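Q: Here's a chain of 340 amino acids. Please give me its 3D structure as tokens.
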Amino acid sequence: MLPLEALEILSSHLEDFRFDEGLLTCPNPLLHPKIDIILRQTMELCKKLTLFIPVSVSRNFLNKTSLENVDFISLIIPSYKDIKSNLQTVKMLLSQGIDNLEAYILLDSNSDFAEILSTIELCKSYGLKITLGPKLYASPYADKFLEKIAKKENVEIGLHYGRKYFYNAIKVFIDNYPVTLLTSPGAENCKTLYLNPYGNFSKCPLSRFEVNYKKITKDDLRKMLFSPCAINRNVVGLSPKIRVSFVTKEGVEIPGEILELLELISQVNSFRAACKALGVSPSTYWEKIRSLEEKLGISLIISVRGGRKKGITILTEFAKDLLKEYREIREKAIVSLYEY
């Protein structure tokens, strides 16, 4: 967990110097018990502060007191499924009067073009500012997207207008709606500084030279700030992928794909819509659900076919309890990955 002393020492070394922009990113920064202090101290070091939050963040931690003190909030959206199943988070932020929201849609070598466009359309419907880019500190994959989007009607591609999040950026107008696309690392004159959760300073996570806050000097900071960009040298970037599943005492497995489906059903109250968001066959997963229910000896979903609730699918109490435990375990796993 980030030691507050690291920010205090950085402030004393920098004296009156302030960074143009600060980026605060973490699997769930709002879990930090001292998040308000971290935000305040970071804002004293930077002219502008952007807080990155995964769109799947637990809504229990969306505290307006913390969020209203930042200049910009960027919701990280890995896929259409993630934004579709967490629209309530977007609505909650907007309903609190927080308008400085950005949808940061992840774009990598495995991104599906049609899915990206669907995600953009969904974000447009809520009036969100939209940025397409890689995981921070990874190399962008904008070329293929530009090649495909240029062939579509009602699309206008602008010129590079500057930098955003230490990447070169251009504007792409899709049906006259502005979308920012991060195209390449802004390696020239890059003056970034990275502070990890342990209190170690470096140029960025890809740099080999790092110093703990207890030993950092002004010369160390100067060396980091003026060292060359390491993003271009990062050929392969690997990150862990979490998949949670359960196994009963009798050895019956409840796989992660079923848990993800249950989570979506709880949001959209429709089996078919949930399958569509996941990009899977409703008939195939209907059989998987029924087969699993037979092995468990208990129902997971209830479909209402008549009356005013025609077409609605809801979770059973057992499935609701299962989903609650699934979310808690998944969030703990995400947080623990960042701690080690």
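Q: Can you summarize the key feature?
A: The CA atoms of residues 92 and 329 lie 23 Å apart.
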